[in-house]
Amino acid sequence: MGVVEIKAEGSAKRHGGRYIYEALRRQILTLQLKPGAQLDEVSLAAQFGVSRSPVRDALARLISEGLVTILPNRTMLVTPFEIEEFPNYIAALDLTQRAVTRLAAINRTEQDLQRIRKANVAYVAALGQGSFEAMSELNKAFHMEIARAGHNPYFTCYYEKLLGEGQRLLHLHFDFIVSSQGLSGADQDHDSIIEAIANRQADLAEQASHEHTVLFRDRFLEFMKQNLTKGVSIR
Question: Which residues form the HTH gntR-type domain (predicted)?
Fold first, then answer.
């Protein structure tokens, strides 16, 4: 397996580790860097025109988010995703999403609710502009505001990792979603969740979040059903 060459956009020297982190994260989430691609500190430092220290910092952050994996021999890879693990991923996402949404309905403050609504407005605006990269980021931001409203940092940290993996899967089958279902009505996916949280209806909030996960699962499985024989791979 060869080391993937990364395109350094502009001068990274002025930005250091944060710029490198954001550039690598964007390429991982949009699948420009494929799952399983090997990463190397020395090569990345040369490509970005920096020392190894900011590259190491960027990779450490990506490892903490679960987007990069370090093997026992110190080799670093874009975290692979085995299709056989999809049911386990969905189970983890479903349970965690239900938990954070339920907690948000119970524990949210008015300030939390305002941030949730504001994040959803930004997401809906991105839908109207048709920018999928922005939509993906803002959808994650919306769900993270819900998690923070639950005021349990353990759930919030783990949930963020699951959402990052979900972004990669969304990018994998985004074209399928648009061509088969379009984006009309996608802004309504969040409405029932927000309403239940606003009304402090924990059971309804949990159920709405579960249905949200089921919709994601069913879309992805339908995509795999139609494309599995066409050589689709997510490794």
Answer: 14-81
Q: Which of 53, 59, 80, 57 is nearest to 6 (CA)?
A: 59
- Provide the 8-state DSSP code for 3: B
Q: In 32-131, where does DSSP find H-type helix? A: 41-48, 52-64, 86-107, 110-129
**205 lies in the same domain as 173:** yes
**Pair 50, 147 in one domain:** no
Q: HEC profile for 147-161?
A: HHHCCCHHHHHHHHH
Number of domains comprising the chain: 2
Using CA atoms, how far apart are residues 28 and 16, in angstroms rounded to an integer? 18
Q: Max alpha carbon distance in the chain (Å)?
A: 54
Averages of pLDDT over runs of 10 residues in the chain (235 residues) are 49 66 89 89 90 92 89 89 88 98 98 98 86 86 98 96 88 64 60 97 97 91 71 48
- Residue 41 forms part of a structural domain: yes
Q: Are residues 89 and 74 in the same domain?
A: no
pLDDT in the model for residue 119:
97
